[in-house]
Amino acid sequence: MKLAIKRIAFLVIILGIWQLVFSAGVFEDIVFPSPVKVSTALYEGFVDGDFMKALGASFRHLFMGLSLAILFGTIIGVLLGKSKQADETAGMYLIALQSIPSIVWVPLAIMLFGFSEFAVVFVVVLGGTFVMALNVRTAIHSVPPQLVRAARTMGTNGIPLFFRVEIPSSIPYFMTGIRLAWAFSWRALMAGELLSNGPGLGYSLRYAQDYARMDQVIAIIIIIGVIGAVVDQIVFSRLERNVRKRWGLAKS
Amino acid sequence: MFLKMEEVGKTFNDKQKESFEVFSGIDLDISENQFVSLLGPSGCGKSTLLSMVAGLEEVTSGSIKLEGNPIKKAGPDRGMVFQQPSLFPWLNVKENVLFPLKGQWSKKESEERADRFLQMVHLSRFKQSYTHELSGGMQQRVAIARALAMDPKVLLMDEPFGALDEQTRHILHEELMKIWQETQKTILFVTHSIQEAIKLSDRVIVMGTRPGRIIADFYIDIPRPRKRDDEKVIEMERKVMDLLEGEINKVLKEELSHEVSH
Fold first, then answer.
1. For chain A, N or C: smaller number of CB within 10 Å?
2. Strand, helix or coil at A84?
3. CATH for B3-77+152-247?
4. Mean pLDDT of A89-111
5. CB contact, 8 Å: B74 with chain A?
6. B97: nearest CA partner in chain A
7. What's the rounded Cα separation, in Å, for the pair B98 and B111?
8. Which residue range or ranges hold the ABC transporter domain (chain B) (predicted)?
9. Chain Cα centroid distance, residue B146
10. What is the pLDDT of residue B20?
């Protein structure tokens, strides 16, 4: 409870400073709207349904892109994790690909698929796939050899060994992969949408910029930040924590 | 013979280094229901030999036969208990014991067997617990129940109590004796503790090192339960100690000279 009060107090102070700077008239109103104006923009955006529509579109892109990223990432990761040959050959390039910021893929996507929603999904897929693949590879490599030996003495080999020991053993790392894939995909989504022809939150952001609506710009940035934090904390981090606890990797 | 090793040898082939011979020409016959300890200093290959019986390591030369059938790979006819309990953390205690029974026994039989062996190791109350909620000694008991539940012909134990504290080890010794008498399993037990070997075994195989080989084969004819201060036990311990001292010194000397030359 005390923590919540501290956090709310901090927010109030920030808003207070914001209002003070605004009242002092240091910057022009058009580049520095008041907290009230931003709140109004937030409220109106939701009442009009504009933000909800944009949010719906963004989540649709994210859902499609992230699902494909998890699927492709898992396939690549299992391949590299299981085959030493494949890992030695292609593993290095995977790290290189993973280090490319997803916004870099946007021009490529636009040239390939035009200003379409598919181009956005394409960028999201690229944003999440490589980090997922890297984590799945680590997951497969981190299966304790001792557990594999124990399973073999119980007559478990080959495909049953993979499904009954290697997969369950790697679930915690797999969950980390999903959380990171979500984080990367969410950033890629915004990059892709910003340069797309909509709909989507990123597109709304650029639209507001084109019409010099700083209040809307800030409002949308707040929405993006809040969604990112909430989804990470409530869904993915919690899921990961629970799995680690259940697997005995974290102290309860 | 029940378990027969003939001229067994093991050589590790390292790509970078030259090949390393752990031991060669090991001959050993073990009869059914016997409790046999493999005792020796580190590096004598006792654990490697046990892994070869388990089928986890390949036999380089010679043969190991269980009831006349050469051992080629790991299988449920040889249950193994490792120094680390090696339980599956995503399964609870009972599910761990059920793991090797899946597909081998009917569901009802599996349940009954799991319950029976968990009762044997006094863990019935903890069936639903996850393994990381248990102490080291309890985890090792689950591992023993899991190995026994699949009804192996031989129970292989690789320093199973090596990582436990003295008190727990003592309790588990008693329990293992009871289990052995109840199940009449053949047990092959690897240890570096002379006391442990003499306390538990019908027979102690003493191994030496560089090269690994069998240097003595003692039949321990002392009535159970064996007390630590029993004169016969003490005498036996001294006998084995004298034998091993030379071997241990050899290892120490070699390690020291290794240190000096580097």
1. N
2. helix
3. 3.40.50.300
4. 92
5. yes
6. A154
7. 7
8. 3-234
9. 15
10. 85
Strand-pair category, B154-158 with B186-191: parallel
Residues in B touching A149 (Cβ below 8 Å):
56, 82, 86
A11: exposed, middle or buried (Cβ count in 10 Å: 0-12, 13-18, 19+): exposed
**Residues A154, B55: C-beta atoms closer than 8 Å:** no
Token digits for B136? 């080291």
Give chain A's radius of gyration (CA, Å): 23
The C-alpha of B160 sits at a distance from chain A's nearest C-alpha, in angstroms, of 13
| Local structure of B230: helix, strand or coil | coil
Local structure of B215: helix, strand or coil: strand
Could you give the strand order of the β-sheet that contains B203-208, starting from the edge strand earlier in sequence? B78-81, B154-158, B186-191, B35-39, B203-208, B213-219
* Structure token pair of residue B195: 């006391």
Residue B82 and residue A171: Cβ atoms within 8 Å?
A: no
| Count of Cβ atoms closer than 10 Å to residue A212 Cβ | 10
The interface predicted TM-score (ipTM) is: 0.89
| Token pair for A221 | 């940035």
Rg (CA), chain B: 19
Q: What is the pTM of this model?
A: 0.84
The 10s digit of each residue's pLDDT in A29-63 is 888 999 999 999 999 999 998 899 999 999 999 99
For chain B, the structural domain boundaries read: 3-77+152-247
B136 at A interface, C-beta within 8 A: no
The pLDDT score that the predictor gives to residue B245 is 85
Residue A136 one-letter amino acid: V
Instruction: Give me the residue label for tokens 């960028």.
Output: A123
User: Under CATH, which architecture does the A30-247 domain have?
Assistant: Orthogonal Bundle (1.10)
* 3-class secondary structure, B152: coil
- How does pLDDT run across A165-199, given as a tens digit for each residue? 999 999 999 999 999 999 999 999 999 999 888 79
Q: A121 is written with which tokens?
A: 């999904």
